[in-house]
Amino acid sequence: MKRGLRLLGVLAALLALAPVASCWPGWDFIFDQTPSREHRLEDLRVLAVLAEPAALAIPAAFVLDGPEPPPLELEITPFIFDPRGGDVDVALGLCASGLEGIPCAAGDDAPSFSKTVRADAEDPLGRVDVRATLRLDRAQLRALYRQAGVAIDSARNVNLSVVVNVARDFGGKRERESAVLTLDMRLDALDPALPAAVRERALASAGLVDCAELESDGCAPSLGPAEPTCGDGLVEGFEECDPPDGTTCDESCFALDICHAARRPVCFQPLKNSRPLIEGLIALSPQGPIPEGAPTVARGGVIRLRSGTTTFFAPTPNVSQAEPRLEGLTFFCPEGTPGEEPFMACGFERVSWRAYVLDRRAELFDPDAPPGQPFVGNTSGGLFPFGVAFLEGTAPGTREPLVVVVADQRGGMDLAVFTLEAEE
Amino acid sequence: VREPATPSLLPSVAGAVLVAVVFGAAAQAAPEVTRPPEVLSSVPPVYPEAARRERRGGAVSLLVTLDADGAVMRVEVVESAGADLDWAALGALTQYAFRPAEIDGRPAAVAITYRLLFEVPAHEAPAPRDARATAPDEGRPAFSLSGRVRRAGTVQPVRFAEVIVSELLPEEAGGLGAPVAILTDDEGRFAFPPLPEGPYRLEVGVEGYEPFRDEQYLAAGERHDLDVALAPRQANDFETVVRRQRGEPPVSRVSLSREEVRAIPGTYGDALRVIESLPGVARAPLFGGALMVRGGYPADTAIHFEGVPIPVLYHFGGFTSVVNGAFIEEISFMPGGFPVRYGNATAGIVDVRAHALENDTFKAHFDVDGFDFGFFFGGHVKPSFGDLALDALPELKIGFAARRSHTEIPGNLFLAAAQAFGQPIPFLPVPLYYDYQLKLEADLTPRSTVSLFVFGAEDSWAVLGDAPAIGTNFDGEDLRLDGILNTFLGNRFHRFLGSWELRPLPGVTHTLRPYVGMTRRGLLSDGVVVPLLTGATLDSPTDELNWGLRDELAVRLTPWLRGLFGFEHHGAAYRIDLLPGGDLFGIEAPEGVATGANASLSTAALYTELQLGPMAGLSVVPGFRAELSSLALTEENALPVYGGSARSAVDSWTFDPRVALRYVVHGDLALKAAGGLFHRRPRAASAAADQDGEALRPPGALQLIGGFEARLTELLTLDAQVYGVRRFDLTRDRSRRYQPRAPQGGLPPAAPAGTAGFDSFGTGNTIGLELLLRSPPTRRFFGWVSYTLSRTEVSLGETRERRVAFAFDQTHNLVAVGRVNLPWEVTFGGRFALVTGNPGIIPDAIATRHDLNGNWYEPVLSSLQPSRLQPFHRLDLRIDKRFIREWWSGVVFLEVINVYNWPNPEVVFPGGDYRARELRTLLPGPPLLPLLGAELDL
Hints:
The complex is a heterodimer of chains A (424) and B (938). The termini of chain A are far apart. By secondary structure, chain A is of the alpha+beta class. Chain A contains seven helices and 19 strands. Chain B is globular and about 110 Å long. Chain B has a 23-stranded antiparallel β-sheet that branches. Chain B has a five-stranded mixed β-sheet with strand order 18-21-22-19-20. Chain B contains seven helices and 57 strands. The longest helix of chain B is centred in the middle third of the chain and has 13 residues, at 408-420. Residues 1-30, 122-136, 234-250, 525-540 and 741-754 of chain B have low confidence and may be disordered. At the A-B interface, helix 1, helix 3, strand 2, helix 4 and strand 10 of A face strand 23, strand 50, strand 51, strand 54 and strand 56 of B.
């Protein structure tokens, strides 16, 4: 009774004096209702980087002693915007990490590029047009491998990061942005120029077993005849393999096909120079599945919208497989017990997308989100349709850009700009 | 030398008559007793039930030996009144506290004769209580005066209160007649013999209560039955004293009564928070609950309840006590230099003691508040079989309490409100807890007491609303959110504690306390913050069987020599079940086979302590503790964690010699010192996860403490201590070991095989100065200023620097607490704390790194130099207004936490938006929080 009355009074006091306690700065953190403005293009931004190729296969000549091979070339096209215009300092660099998700800093001995570029004043997006080709010689490549902590003669994957640093002065302050695109980089273990002993060592260092030496184990017999055929390189979710009980992992399909074709019972995941391409946007119902078919709006086309009416779109990316080769791996044959099922390292390869508008009349919406909720579709990975609308009262004929970016998980990106036009 | 008794020596016990005979050291030559001993606190003897039934009383004369600190060192019966009354008198006297006697101005050991008089209670023998009670004048008609004294606002009787009536006389006759005094009985009743009619002054007084005075005309021929309600002297009896335990030099012991600390601002009435206001304790982060004592991690401080280690003291790490407040008598806090009876701790000890049960009345208490509801029931029963009372069996005292939270109610209200306001919240996790205590106690004989104490508590989570399944387990079953929360944050323990106390001879006490129980710890049972800060690994979320016992023998050999001999054993066994296909420490469990590992933890300790008084003013307490710890793990199904065989992860002896000294220079100055070794067991989870084949060593600490206590003025005391702690064999987590980057930014080579897990190469040092300037309680004011200057460094191999500041290294820690008693039963108190900010990485510039592959952003900190958070400072205020009415009393209070609403950030981290350009504050301390409350006693 005693404590009850006391705490009843406490609760009453809390309610009555809540406005006083509302001054506490901690509420801002706990109940942060600040809408994200990530999808609004209003200042200096790096929205995408195109790398060609999007994966680096290291020829044997970079590992072996001998004459200096021709440098590896990496063409970098960053998509930098600043609708306010002005000069932007752009610096490109490379660094490497042995573990995915571990950031790295561009070293002094890695190829780099820097330039001051003026944002296009005629473009409402303020595109900063810059492109550079970075060339990697043997010494620079070995420096990157050292940075990643991976031996140059290993078949392990190295995450090569393309670092794009941009900066500018505005309003007396120095604004900075940094964007990083991570690519796969591996030794081409099947380069015919690679001696067998070196290849075996490279595979072993990556935890692989060359099944050619394990004739009696279950690798080749169990993998070979199954020959499941599924997957086309672009996976947007789980797919059933054929046979269904084989696995639901698309990676294996690639590997099996290629293993079989190569007549080598070494299971590799191909190192793909994937290049997703935005063919257009397809209009859809926010609740329905993303349909297949021709895009409703072709790449660079005009989307006409009535004010206050939201239309949902998803990009229709196409992924081209440029020269899939047998340089990489993510799973391997079992370590040997005959008849044992092979261990499958499952993984997804999915394409995500993002959309951006200016800080003007156009707005983006998430499907199923209550009215008034800020758009967060980009930050959730960009796997769901996004709604586009002009605010009520937008004058007919108003035109604003819509930027759509797609990215796969192997470093392939594309960016397309559409035009939103308000109509009656 | 004989010193006559003085009135101030009169204890408040029934008819006690004291004849003090002071001799001993003073009896030798001509030293003079410049100040006799005084009773500071007394405990009334328990009137033996058999003697009460037989209406048997008598006087017991005791020879009481006091040391130079006034502690009772020895009590002997000089004049017996029967064995049961003798024992009752002995039991009472051993709990007395005296102000030491002084001989030639210096405190000295003395012996006094103390006489306790047992009288049959008044209502059973309505005779005059005092020889001064006089018969009425023949010439004046008489009246009868009786009544009852109770605690104001309750029906609780006040026994042994002195009731005095004095006739009011004309001024020329002296103003006041001869007083007639009587004491209340166990029921609080009193009855005077017939007194002559006239105006009288009635006075009632007893220790702990405000005196009562009234004047009225008592007419003849009437029977006056008075109801006297005494107001407890609650506002003035705060006592956060460095209260010494008898015979132990009090180097670093602070005893806090729950009632005593009830009204301290900023504590929410939580005694643990009061401990945080004392020297040597780091300010705990966020909402408290973690005790970091003199640079130690929370695990370095052990928590005992009734002498049994318990895993937690507060629900959810700092919410409310796991023991019903009705059962808590005292929380003792020892920040260092603690006796050898305490093991498995290298920093401090918190020892919670339960109330002794009373057998005078039945009591029931119910409470409900915004968080929980509970009840307490206390009473006594006489075992009987039908109509046949079994007189041979002792009376059984019972106390039972239970409490359960009802946070579902506000949680559901919150969900409903959110729905009503158009912001529906699909589900809401709410914490739930319960605890219970059952205590049975009986005096088997006058010389032995047995008790059984059953207690336990559980913290769990419930999810209100419709929470989706988080996933599926290996069996394809849904994983629920509440299950996940309970796995990580749930706690549960139950204990059955028996106690048998035997007093075969005067000065000899043997105590045996066996217990069994179980414990379930969540993976983050130490709290969400602590594992991150301590680097501790996860505990196993499995049920753990606990058992143990403590056997102690305390013997007073001579007035200057007391011995304590003890044996302690604690055991635990648990099993780690592995899901088929899961893994343990990275080792895969076979598919389709239930497997696991069994762990057993066992410790046994022998300890002994001597309490010596070799010379006046000096006491020396050497002690020694030897402990054997072992942790063994047994694998099933040849799980290849330890090579497929049983393995002993910890198997170690520790030897802890400790000594404490105290020398009273004179009545106002005492010097004190302590030193010794302290060990605790390695965390079982860390030891189990260590696979390098080398058993972890118990982390240890060498403590050296010196200081003094001085009475600066009558109203100001100072307790100063300096200490140094050298920690060694600290467990290090190799996975957190700092790896310097290779030249040119490359990663270092991988750690060699077999080096994963833990080792025992961590070290640490703490030096500190602590000051406690205290104004003892008076009728107007009490308060203290606590200041700690300290530096703690640890070397755990987690940073580039060999030694870094402890995560809670707080160079300056200043806390001031005060409370003033104003007129009209109003008290006003305040608490101010100023503490150096904790060490941490404070980002001083921010950029954004945009990961284009996944479109996520992370802050880039331009500086990672070690720094500190801003200093913590906070002011809390509280004002109480007390009401005392005839049958109820109450308190209305307003407590304001963080009066000026200072944010006091605990962690600073970059903002969460895609820009991350602004620094944001993560989890600031409590905001300005006014708490208005009321208490009501019926």
